[in-house]
Amino acid sequence: MCAIAGQLGGGGSAVRPMIEAMTHRGPDGVRLETLAGATLAHARLSIIDLEGGWQPLHAADATVVGNGEIYNYVELARDHGLTDQLATGSDFEPLLHLYAREGAQAFQRLRGMYALCLVGADGRAWLARDPFGIKPLYILEHDTGLAFASEPRAFFAAGLLTPLLDDTAARELLELNYVLGDHTPFQGLRRVAPGEVLEVRDGRIVSGHRRSPLAFPVYGEGGPPAKERGVEGAGSSAEPRLAPSTTPSAGRGPPPPLRRGGRDLLDRLDAVLEDSVRVHQRSDVPYGLFLSGGIDSAAIATVMARLNTRPVTAFTCGFDAPGARDERAQAERVARALDLDWRETTFDEADFWRVLPEVAWALDDPTADYAILPTFKLAEAAKDTLTVVLTGEGGDELFGGYGRYRRALRPAWLGGRPAEPRGTSPQVLAAWRDAARASRGATPLQAAQWADIATWLPHDLLLKLDRCLMAHGLEGRTPFLDPEVAAFAWPLPDRFKVRGGYGKWLLRKWLERVCPAADPWAKKQGFTVPVDAWIAPRSADIAGNLGKVEAVRRLLGDEARPRMLTPGAGRWPLLFFAVWALIHLEGAEPAEAMGVVCPG
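Above: the chain's sequence. Below: its structure in token form.
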């Protein structure tokens, strides 16, 4: 985990201030090099090969800077006969040798979370991002070439771009809590899309393609339709094809028994999860996990406890507030059953007002998901103990966990409705539908899953995880968002994901077997932070100050004040956006911005 920055084509004088603006991502040191036609920089958080893994890294007449981890670097070296050629233990070095043999095809072999720039001896440069979009990468094409960086703040620090608000993106943020697609809230700056591989020559993009995160491709964001993989793709070719169910029960009863082929699927799920957690644990520094009361983090904890001889360190955040859903009791039951080194922290109203401006600063590419608040507090609590944190992001999207998926499968007379955002403007909803469009061969459940994988997952959940942890020099890893896990989970028939009113049916069945303390058939509580209750006593003062924020005035005008005074979900995104805009558009320090919007 780290920060990368660079200039392809033209001079590289801006690269030094770019990388120095992101040293919170890489507190262990900065290195910068100038090559023929490129300047590359890296701020390092040392995880693997603490002595030899410094970047820019050179091998096989190529150079790379990368943010993230290539988890299958050991297998790449072994399976391709590279072991004797490696000069370091870096997880990025095998890629350089593979590139020398295969060119851009080498990127297809990577199993990991990464954003990287590779410069070859042939003068071609490549920018690549992992298929799920776990690690961020931003680019700016300007007069003298192409600049890239791990965070938007780098471009502003170097004077390459003035932070001007993109109004369309801002409206998406206020309505969806995140910004869609490859555009950002800043005019002229774009994201490299998840799975995108860009070829750059002389500082200009000359070609590009997308790598889908799924065995079952899509055309909305990943190219034309391709052949569907059936359930055989998840394991043995003897596995029967089972017709998906399309009308799950609206109620909940006892969990139904496994049917034909199910026990074999449980064994394969166990093997797939163990393999993913094993490679995600590869680290030369202390690692642990964030443990909630849900089944996704409990599944990761179960496998980690199995693979480690010492108790695994786990952090849980609870809420000391009336009406808040506090999962500490359930997390503690799992921790005791697995003999974890369990540590708890709390989040209360005082934390809310203290953390808000710090989180707004960290999220220069913003998400207004209120889960950023406890995530930031968890990272703050873990930073003195851990360097690597495993989390449960992706379990719902791959195994069909959200209630909106089940509603989407019901007929209208049973309360069914599309798994789409509600309460949005026609323009934002149309943009969301375009980004969320799935392959023509997808089942209705897969279409709903893909909508989240293409939109909410990279632009909200993963962005939140990256920024909140990196603000504290922590690396977040997501074992569910792994190519091998996706290859198993995505082609499963719908009935192994949603059945009898339960989402994540197969994952629950597996957890029932390996960690019954997780209570996998309990009704999902959902995750809430009582932000509206904390804002309400100050809402009148905040409403009176919103006119001091130029971006709020331009976007909402006279609508801002009544929105802040109306109880409900609209207050929090507006408050967050106001503080964010003061910091990232008007140059205010976090404490100063908070004082403008909510003094005292």
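The first helix runs from residue 15 to 20.
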